[in-house]
């Protein structure tokens, strides 16, 4: 074969012409223009966020705006006219001659008592429980599940269950106390201070497991090397807890304290089902009074004003809590 017959294909391949056997060379790919192909990808994050944004707008932002709007009107569901009254509904909460002043501040007092009694217990007891459950011992997983189990029950189940257990005449609690020689006629749900003991005790039993799980997750994030170094330095168990555990749990404690305060201030189901506000209305919470005022008394305007006031108060408490923990970290 001649040198000319083999040199032409080799030269064509070497030159990258791509014309073997007469096949035309493919056209070079064009670089994508800015804003052309990538235009659709910019909308992708918003498409993923759209379901959440719709839920937030429909069940979060819209009710807030509507609540503020209602609080500025004398809103009665049974009347066609709902006149604008401005901030008069808010003034009624602080004027002693208004129809809601006494009951409003009585419910605020009851909610404050419950919050002051329950929050320290729901912060300290779950922490100790989490420290114990963080150790290695047989049946650890079982006990973790046992302590968390009450939290999965709804407030209706908890309320009705303990209402029967704490009944002064037919309740199992008083019967057990009588069997061991203790007073068996304690008015757990009808008199003070036993009403507060019942509400706080049931709430701690019900929700302590959740806070313990949160603490337990935080404990597992603390490096074990810190504890080993503290042992080498001769630190006692209390010193390790104070200087290693507590600083490591500070962000978790901020979350636990804030959510516990908010949950306690929104007390409703326990008071409504267990003590039913007794004695009288001494254990009626703010949320219960708001519901009663807005629905039973057809006074949605003042009820909305109470809701906004409670929300602002809780926002101030939460901000103060965050600033306090940030100050400690600094």
Name the beta content range. under 5%
Order of helices and strands: HHHHHHHHHHHHHH
- Kindly report how far apart the N and C termini lie: 88 Å
Shape: globular
CATH topology, by name, is: MetI-like fold
Question: Into which percent range does the helicity of residues fall?
Answer: 55-70%
Low-pLDDT stretches: 1-22, 35-39
Q: How many domains?
A: 1
CATH superfamily label = MetI-like
CATH architecture: Orthogonal Bundle
Structural class of the secondary elements?
mainly alpha
Give the biggest beta sheet.
none
Radius of gyration: 33 Å
Write the layout of secondary structure elements.
Blueprint: H1 3-15, H2 44-71, H3 88-92, H4 101-133, H5 140-148, H6 155-165, H7 172-179, H8 194-220, H9 224-232, H10 237-248, H11 250-265, H12 269-275, H13 286-296, H14 300-329
């Amino acid at each position: 074969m001649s040198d000319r017959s083999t040199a032409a294909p080799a030269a064509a391949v070497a030159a990258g012409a791509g014309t073997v056997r007469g096949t035309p060379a493919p056209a070079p790919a064009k670089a994508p223009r800015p804003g052309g192909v990538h235009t659709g990808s910019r909308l992708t994050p918003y498409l993923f966020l759209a379901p959440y944004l719709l839920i937030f707008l429909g069940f979060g932002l819209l009710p807030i705006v509507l609540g503020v709007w209602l609080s500025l009107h004398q809103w009665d569901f049974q009347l066609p006219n709902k006149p604008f009254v401005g901030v008069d509904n808010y003034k009624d909460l602080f004027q002693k001659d208004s129809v809601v002043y006494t009951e409003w501040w009585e419910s605020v007092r009851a909610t404050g008592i419950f919050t002051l009694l329950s929050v320290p217990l729901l912060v300290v007891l779950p922490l100790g429980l989490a420290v114990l459950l963080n150790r290695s011992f047989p049946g650890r997983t079982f006990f973790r599940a046992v302590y968390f189990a009450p939290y999965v029950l709804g407030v209706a189940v908890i309320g009705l269950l303990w209402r029967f257990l704490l009944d002064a005449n037919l309740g199992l609690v008083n019967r057990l106390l009588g069997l061991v020689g203790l007073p068996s006629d304690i008015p757990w749900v009808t008199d003070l201070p036993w009403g507060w003991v019942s509400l706080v005790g049931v709430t701690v039993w019900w929700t302590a497991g959740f806070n313990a799980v949160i603490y337990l997750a935080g404990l597992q994030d603390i490096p074990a090397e810190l504890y080993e170094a503290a042992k080498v330095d001769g630190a006692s168990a209390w010193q390790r807890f104070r200087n290693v555990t507590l600083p490591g749990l500070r962000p978790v404690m901020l979350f636990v304290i804030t959510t516990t305060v908010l949950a306690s201030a929104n007390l409703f189901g326990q008071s409504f089902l267990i003590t039913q506000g007794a004695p009288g209305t001494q254990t009626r919470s703010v949320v219960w009074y708001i519901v009663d005022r807005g629905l039973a008394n057809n006074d949605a305007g003042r009820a909305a004003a109470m809701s906004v006031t409670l929300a602002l108060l809780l926002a101030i408490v939460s901000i103060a809590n965050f600033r306090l923990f940030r100050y400690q970290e600094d």
